[in-house]
């Protein structure tokens, strides 16, 4: 092709050197390695849309509070298994201030990032009731969560929500739940990779069915208040972000510090368990662990503690202080992360001006917003083909196929976009279009 930045031979040699079996189905980590190696070999900059790592500086409030905690000597003692009281209290206040949901401090459990929260949640939810041992993914979703289930040997079902928005979701969900073996449902909202947002009507369906079938909902709020189509993120003030917690008592909300406070390197989140679920007694848990069988206690002491034995003490103080400052109106995290929406708008325009289309383009009632991720397709190319072709033009992404999506296209992340890369991206996508004329 006439305008490629990296030749097919060069890319093929790097793929071979890195022992990647199939570029079309490469994981995020593999794409990352290919892009880095090509940059290293040639000195030509890549436009990195692969890994969803924050592209803003870590929050100073957290840094200062964490330093102060270390200076006080907290590094010398093991932190309590269920977390430091300050973080539990502030997490409870934060959820009330920003979601308008009541969860007591005891049921807000610090975890080493939401990855540890979902791992622990998959372990316990698939063991509560004999015969209920599968997880249902409302996809597209986060591929790592399926890898976690492979580790624990649990099975899963999945479906792509693309064709099942709104009321259509009810029948689709129920077709899985009535089999009687689904223990938990998992999704992220806003969604990674598609940035679609489940609306209240859909969360009401999920909540109602989870109650009827005794299924626990794991709601990943990694991109909390990042639906910038409305003014979310004002403490103690509506509008509040939609959540399944309004419609069922069977839930765990996962609230990470990684994106909203750009605190990804410190691996910190809280799993907020509904009080009713926290106190639910499961005989199967009591038998397996030789403990009380009460969900919350087993989750903390018999599951999460075995995975990470608590969370870094100083980071808990850092997170607690960021949550407190946000709740008290001193820290506007939503304004800080709005930068991602500005980047998405500019990046999407470059793509659509050059013949690409947005794959997941609509929620139930309105166009998808701009934020941390978006999805693009080109003509009839499969996701794997498009991922490979974009690499030749110095743009890295991940194929939607790896996220449980049935739609052809790739996921783009806005976090690593920089001002000086926009003209470069425009030039490269013009070249891409010239080399790939659409019929």
From TrEMBL:
Residues 61-416 form the Aminotransferase class I/classII large domain. One of its GO terms (molecular function) is pyridoxal phosphate binding. SUPFAM superfamilies: PLP-dependent transferases (SSF53383). The keyword Iron does not apply. Keywords: Aminotransferase, Pyridoxal phosphate, Transferase. One of its GO terms (biological process) is amino acid metabolic process. Its cofactor is pyridoxal 5'-phosphate. CDD domains: AAT_like (cd00609). InterPro entries: Aminotransferase_I/II_large, AspAT/PAT-like, PyrdxlP-dep_Trfase, PyrdxlP-dep_Trfase_major. Belongs to the class-I pyridoxal-phosphate-dependent aminotransferase family. This is Aminotransferase, class I/II. It comes from Paraprevotella clara YIT 11840.
